[in-house]
Amino acid sequence: MRAPLLWICNAIAIWLASIWVSGIGILSPAEHGDWGKVIVVLVVAIVFSAVNAVVKPLLTLLSLPLVVLTLGLFLLVINALMLLLTAKLSELTDYGLRVDGFWPAVWGGLVIALVNWVLGAFVPAPARR
């Protein structure tokens, strides 16, 4: 039950980043209206979650000296790279996430991290047994 809530939080964060950061956009089918955009954002959020679950831990481990040296600020670069990777994966279709460079990805990664942090406070923690 926790995973769908986290996907919805990611979808809201990606949608807000596309609104607030110039250079980040969501391409959706015009004939399907707003529901088409919602479906595209949800699919992009699932892809973004998968990229964060598989690639981000490996990249963080490999760049651990830089993360320690910069007191964690390099994690912003890693977030930007995850957003760029998600955009590259969604370029395989006509719909999805578009990011126009590194700096929009950095700002978008920061927005997504902050929104997920705020919304994550409302997602119940997994039960301990």
TrEMBL record:
InterPro entries according to UniProt: Phage_holin_4_2 (IPR007165)
UniProt entry tagged with the keyword Transport: no
The organism's place on the tree of life at top rank: Bacteria
Transmembrane segments: 7-29, 35-55, 62-85, 105-125
Keywords linked to the UniProt accession: Membrane, Transmembrane, Transmembrane helix
Pfam families reported for this sequence: Phage_holin_4_2 (PF04020)
Name used for this protein in its record: Phage holin family protein
Annotated source species: Skermania pinensis
